[in-house]
Amino acid sequence: MVIVVAFYLLMLFISLFQIRKQYGLDNEEPYEDLLEVSYTKPLSILVPAYNESAGIIASVRSLLSIEYSEYEIIVINDGSTDDTMQRLIQQYDLVKVNRVIKKAIDTKEVKAVYQSKLYDYLYVVDKVNGGKSDALNVGINLSNFPYFCSIDGDSILERDAFLKVMKPIIDSGEEVIASGGSVRIANGCRIENGSIVSIGLSSRPIVIMQVIEYLRAFLMGRIGLSRHNLLLIVSGAFGVFSKKWVIDAGGYSHTVGEDMELVVRLHRLVKEKKANKKIVYIADPVCWTEAPEELTFLRRQRNRWHRGLFESLWTHKKLILNPKYGSIGMVSMPYFLFIEFLGPVVELIGYLYMIASFIVGGIYVEFTYLLFLLLVIYGSMYSMVAVLLEEWSMRRFPKVKHIVKLFFFSMTESFWYRPMTVLWRCQGIVDVLRKKNGWGDMQRKGVSQ
Predict the structure, then answer these.
(1) How do the pLDDT tens digits run along the chain, 449 residues long?
(2) Are strands 190-192 and 122-127 parallel, antiparallel or unpaired?
(3) CA-to-CA distance for 249 and 316, rounded, in angstroms?
(4) Phi, psi of 270 (to 5 degrees)
(5) Phi and psi based region of residue 221 (left: phi greater than 0; alpha: psi -120 to 50; beta: remaining)
(6) Are 321 and 330 in contact (CB under 8 A)?
(7) Angle at CA of residue 314, ends 2 and 226, nearest 5°
């Protein structure tokens, strides 16, 4: 526990320093030049879609209105069984085109390629179902430009998100090979025609806790890890990659955690080639996505994330505590193995031991109170600080009552939400031992009206 607290405290101080440094600058001026074609790098936006009928039209509409000089949008319909494809054809006046697809990465069969008559930079690929990773690999094969961005089919982007997430890539002179942006929860927000009209907060406690969880993960965890090139996750909901490096790494693998596995493989490739490359995280660009509103679907999501974490660690177990891979092998991989993957097991054993001790009467009551207060303060403090960081740096929530509500729920996390997620993550470990595969069905209501 001392090691975990110390590590999180270190990341907190690094995050505070980075955010203070970043937001001491003018928020608009550094990006004005990037609107000129001569300064930017063209970008391919890949949108894998499987049964995304509820949100795909709004997501594509938000991409059509982004501020960026040169880009193309490639929607990959991964064998949807609903009317996703029909809605896209009708909404954007799609027609079949003959387009050569390079086989840089092996994929499932492509049925047809469509192009919009309304927007000539919008393409839709209809393919046989092969999973999200296969859909992204098809998009990479079809793309024209040197950088690509993967976007979830239910996501909404802020208009200047690409200007900000591409800036470190442009400024670094190709030293940065991947850049990730912040993801926020759209439930409770008012979104019309693919654009954020007003930011709100859901009234459902399960969604509010996910908002806090996302703030903590993105504003504290990823900023701290990115500062020293230790980042092993670029969210599948919003990340930009160098196409050349991804193809050299073999593209996306067929796992339930394809986004993390690709980043780990890129780090491994960089170390083995002894190249001076970085993978960074930008706190400001915001992608809004739909969060599960029911415990059943949230449980499936967390179970899948934990299985994906194991697959990434197991596939690249050679890196763990291997000095050849520098700080990735000696810091990042052990952290994700011992704290992120095995941490829930230790925590669950603690809960069970506490219950058993209470039943048999083997509890030192005064010391128990002390540890309990430490647990609540430790768990809640990081969540509350994440809320403060959000308000201090970005001021995304316009109403005071939203901040008060987030503060209140962050103090309750240790009593109900944390034990639930611990149990779900431990179930993920059990499913790994049972060799369970697959994503599991996720309910989509659509974030835009």
Answers:
(1) 778 778 888 888 887 777 766 655 445 555 555 666 556 789 999 999 998 888 888 889 889 988 888 899 999 999 999 899 999 999 999 999 998 888 899 999 999 999 999 999 999 999 999 999 999 999 999 999 999 999 887 778 888 888 888 888 888 778 999 998 888 888 888 887 767 788 888 999 999 999 988 888 877 778 778 888 888 988 878 889 999 999 999 999 988 889 999 999 999 999 999 999 999 988 776 788 889 999 999 999 999 999 999 999 999 999 999 999 999 999 999 999 999 999 999 989 988 888 888 888 777 878 878 877 877 777 777 777 777 777 666 666 767 888 888 888 888 888 899 899 999 999 999 999 998 876 656 565 555 44
(2) unpaired
(3) 13
(4) -60, -45
(5) alpha
(6) yes
(7) 55
In 3D space, the residue among 228, 238, 285, 224 whose CA is nearest the CA of residue 19 turns out to be 224
Q: What is the DSSP letter of 36?
A: S
Taking each continuous run of H as one helix and of E as one strand, the counts in the chain are 17, 12
β-bridge pairing 43-49 and 110-116: unpaired
Question: What is this structure's pTM?
Answer: 0.88
239 within 8 A of 150, measured Cβ to Cβ: yes
Q: What is the DSSP letter of 212?
A: H
User: What is the Cβ-side half-sphere exposure of residue 137, based on CA atoms within 13 angstroms?
Assistant: 25
- Residue in 222, 213, 426, 230 with CA at minimum distance from that of residue 334: 230
Residue 70's φ and ψ, nearest 5 degrees, are: -145, 120
Instruction: Match 């309304």 to its residue by tokens.
Output: 118
Contact present, 183 and 287 (Cβ < 8 Å) = yes
Q: Which two tokens stand for residue 354?
A: 């506490």
Can you tell me the distance from the alpha carbon of 150 to that of 302, in angstroms, rounded to the nearest whole number? 21
